[in-house]
Design a protein that fits this description.
Blueprint: E1 2-6, E2 9-13, H1 17-22, H2 46-72, E3 78-85, H3 91-97, E4 107-111, H4 117-121, H5 126-130, E5 138-142, H6 151-154, H7 160-179, E6 182-190, H8 193-205, H9 216-221, H10 224-237, E7 245-249, H11 253-271, H12 282-290
Parallel strand pairs: 3-5, 3-6, 4-5, 6-7
Antiparallel strand pairs: 1-2
Length: 292
């Protein structure tokens, strides 16, 4: 962890090679300046990337177990991984190939769809709060509270003054979380419209993938410029020291999976959870066990 200024207060921010190079710098955001096919921080090819992911997976599993054990013994720290991106950007792929390397008992995965009428009446952050990970857990949001400044903005679901207020509400919410032991890792999975088209075509060409195809995805493609503008605003206005954004080049699936998993590993190592000490006399228990 490193200290960075946030107003008058110092806050802990995860640091590491990939956390540093993929973090969105403060200020205006121009997504066209980010290469969606880049392999930032990795010098190998696809085959090397798959091997590297397995190596990272073994390490991230060990550190996750330490965090889980800490939480079972009274620790309050936990991690929240937020995955946002256009359709086909690979949120599910990251969960299968990255999160799938961790122990399921220490994971809480939530996929957010359109809110129900009852959820809408409670405010846009209510259902998010219900899905937060508990102590020692790694929570993963497949979409998140950011939908309410993305889809709501692009589709005009609420008036501009409403979604404009939500940026600051999100910042306050995330600051509250970090103050109570939540480390937030927000990843924007950045793909090109050309790559999305290829992935949608692949789904149509494969009968085993038809269930993943949504005709509405074509309608959403027509709104690509509006979504890009909305994402740029979210990345710019909600990129705080407590909860920074990371842009993940995602045209190459293997790199995307390795990069996000590496961010998790560096975050876990930065937290440095330790195995809880025994709250009993180990020698005595060995003696008692030997006598049985």
């Amino acid at each position: 962890m490193a200290k960075k200024k946030s107003g008058q207060d110092d806050v802990d921010v995860p640091t590491g090679k990939m956390l540093d190079v993929l973090r969105v710098p403060p200020g205006a955001v121009d997504l066209t300046s980010y290469d969606t096919r880049a392999t930032t921080g990795f010098s190998g090819d696809k085959a090397d990337g798959k091997v590297a992911l397995e190596e990272v997976g073994a390490k991230v599993s060990d550190w996750q177990e330490r965090l889980f054990a800490e939480g079972r013994k009274g620790g309050e720290r936990r991690i929240l991984l937020v995955l946002q991106g256009m359709d086909t950007s690979g949120k599910g792929g990251v969960i299968r190939h990255g999160a799938g390397l961790m122990d399921p008992q220490g994971l809480k995965i939530t996929s957010f769809k359109a809110p129900t009428p009852a959820e809408k009446r409670r405010g846009f952050l209510w259902r998010i709060r219900q899905a937060l990970p508990g102590p020692g857990m790694v929570g993963i949001f497949d979409r998140s509270h950011y939908e309410d400044v993305l889809i709501a903005r692009v589709r005009n679901l609420v008036a501009p003054p409403v979604w404009n207020r939500r940026y600051e509400e999100i910042n306050e919410f995330e600051a509250e979380l970090t103050a109570t032991g939540v480390t937030i890792v927000k990843c924007f999975l950045h793909i090109s419209p050309e790559q999305q088209k290829e992935r949608l075509e692949a789904r149509l060409d494969d009968p085993t993938k038809h269930w993943k195809y949504n005709p509405g995805d074509v309608d959403e493609r027509e709104l690509w410029p509006a979504y890009a503008e909305a994402y740029q605003a979210a990345l710019e206005r909600c990129n705080t020291p407590e909860a920074p954004w990371y842009v993940i080049p995602s045209d190459r699936k293997w790199y995307r999976n390795w990069a996000v998993t590496t961010l998790l590993l560096e975050t876990l190592k930065g937290l440095d959870p330790q195995w809880p000490a025994a709250d009993f006399d180990v020698a005595e228990e060995k003696t008692r066990l030997a006598a049985t």
